[in-house]
Amino acid sequence: MTAARAAGYAALVAVAVAAPFVLPQYQSQLALLWVMVVLALSWDIVGGQMGYNSFGNIVFFGIGVYATAVVQRDLFFDIDEYAHAAGGVASQLAPLEYLGGLALGLVLGALLAVLAAAVLGAGILRLRGHYFAICTLGLGIAMGEIAGGTDYIGAGSGLVTPLFPELLGERNRFFYFYFMLLAFTCFGVLGAVYRCRFGLALNAIRDNEDKAEAMGLRTTRYKTIAWCLSAVFLALAGGAYGNFIGFVDPVDTAFAGPTLGVWMILMAIMGGRGTLWGPVLGAMIFHVSREFLWTYLLGWDRMILGLLTVLIVLFLPLGILGWLRGRTAGRAAAAGVKPSAAESRPSSSTSQPPLSESQP
Amino acid sequence: MSALLRVSEVSKSFGGVTANRALSLSVDAGAIAGLIGPNGSGKTTLFNCIVGRHPVDSGSVVFDGREIRHRTVPQIARLGLLRTFQQTRVYGAMDCVQNMQISAPQRDAENARQKLFRKVPAAVTEKAESLLEFAGLYEKRRLRAGELSFGQQKLLEFAMALMNEPKMLLLDEPTAGINPTLINGIMERLLRANAELGITLLVIEHNMRVIMNLAQHIYCLAHGSLLAAGTPQEVREDPRVLSAYLGAQ
User: In the list A73, A109, A284, B186, which could disulfide-bond A67, CB 3.0-4.6 Å?
Assistant: First the structure.
């Protein structure tokens, strides 16, 4: 079982590593696919496992985008010269300079995002249900507007990220592997975390927060940690995403609520919220179908995607993975296989045999 | 024996409605006390006041020698004072074992921090399963809690409370909506939890047969005030209690 599973993972890794070499023309699309996987996975921490519908997670993504771009700018460019050229500075950086700036920016972005999640979370995570959703929605929009009005980060005309040094090879391939590793890390970390007590605590908050409080769980702390965890991965994705796109627009790249911000929710719900594989599956299906649709059916693409989303929410409310699981469980029940009926419990010294109970 | 829980002169009103009027009661460590009264007499409100869900207007609540009036629900729960709900509250999408695992006590903050990112220890799972067996739910342990019947959910909620190793349990109508066969099972388990695990109980109950057999001391509320208190025998024969229940004025 575990050997088969390990082989399965190895095969997936092999496919992922080989993909940009086999399909070099789709390299940038495949890189975006991993971005989508990270977005969906990190949304699902709070939205799926914890049951808090956040429409504002894009905030942390945007913080990562801006932090990285600003660090890269201020580290290597004279601000006067940069301002004079109105963002037109595009001088070549040495590979180590570029990588150093990128790494520093990513780390700083992640720290800033965690800080923002902790501060915002202390206030917003007290809200529940629709109130939380609406508040986070406002947060995402507000951040886009604020960024678009702040001169230091380029205001509405945005920021240009440094050119990718030619010595580092192909830019798209570099970012493909960065996003792939980030997606793997995110998947691995979340898989490990969900198996811990923390995962159970998140599910408990999702299922009945009042009960969790009445049982003495430190719900506020767990909710904040979950949002911070989500923020880390979003900022790490965002920082590189700005460089990958090459230009930081406040509303289209960084705080892209109507696109990336909504897509991350759709992908997680489509695949199956509250599961580890669901967001991954959802991201793959969503991204691939979106690319096909707007390549071949431009103009109809958003309508069809919207229709697809409505159909999935109506007929597969638990997502594709939730539906598959329900089917296998249903088949097991139909075949008369009860998961626990066959096992018998060794008698324990403290308790007497359970009374035979009829259902009330 | 000393009082584990002492409620003194607690009042709580919602707008113009006084739900609790200067209520006082005390429960000794290791005892089983009952709380009865007609619908709307303020029993559940008193529970909510004790566990910190409602801010108390005036009065004091002392548990285990500490004033807990201004503490929050999770803080009070971590002191070892737990309550169950009249309408069952379980983690519906999690299976029974997971419901139990997450109910394991986390009193000490440092300890809780360390355990947060560790897997649930085998000892905890073992204890969870043996308590599920105690509650008669062992066969159902891999079912989602939401798929259990109402009575089974009550049993699960009780088992979750025991998992938390409380000093005292406040039970809000543990046998309401349960069939008579299962009621006996629940009563027996309450008595065993009290005798074997030493958990002090305060039970709200409408079923007179249950409460008279369970409690050593009973408090009767009516219209937010304490109407009568005493042994089951005394309360049963108190004419004021009879008139409050039957409406004979």
Answer: A109
- Spell out the domain ranges in chain A: 27-291
Highest mean pLDDT among A152-161, A180-189, B38-47: A180-189
Using a 10 angstrom Cβ sphere, with 0-12 exposed, 13-18 middle and 19 or more buried, the burial of residue A334 is exposed
B142/A339 CB distance under 8 A: yes
Extents of the domains making up chain B: 3-91+164-246
- Write the residue in B77, B134, B185 that is nearest to A215 by C-beta: B77
Specify burial of residue A97 (Cβ count, 10 A radius: 0-12, 13-18, 19+).
middle
pLDDT, greater one: A352 or A37: A37
Q: Mean pLDDT throughout A119-145?
A: 92
| Residue B245's pLDDT band (cuts 50, 70, 90) | confident
Q: Which two tokens stand for residue A85?
A: 């050229």
Interface contact A196, partner B, CB < 8 A: yes
ipTM above 0.85, yes or no: yes
Reply yes or no on whether the pLDDT at A298 is more than 90.
Answer: no
Query: What's phi and psi for A316, nearest 5 deg?
Result: -130, 70
Domain B3-91+164-246: which CATH number of 3.40.50.300, 3.30.2350.10, 3.20.20.140, 3.40.190.10: 3.40.50.300
Q: Which of A308-312, A353-357, B80-84, B204-208 has the highest mean pLDDT?
A: B80-84
When CB atoms are compared, the residue of B91, B139, B164 closest to A203 is B91
Residue B59: both structure tokens together: 């009065």
Contact of A88 with chain B, judged by CB distance below 8 Å, is answered with no
At residue A180, the pLDDT reads: 97
Across the interface, do B116 and A215 touch by the CB < 8 Å criterion? no
Residue B119 at interface with chain A, using a CB cutoff of 8 Å = yes
- Distance between CA atoms of residues B100 and B210, nearest Å: 26
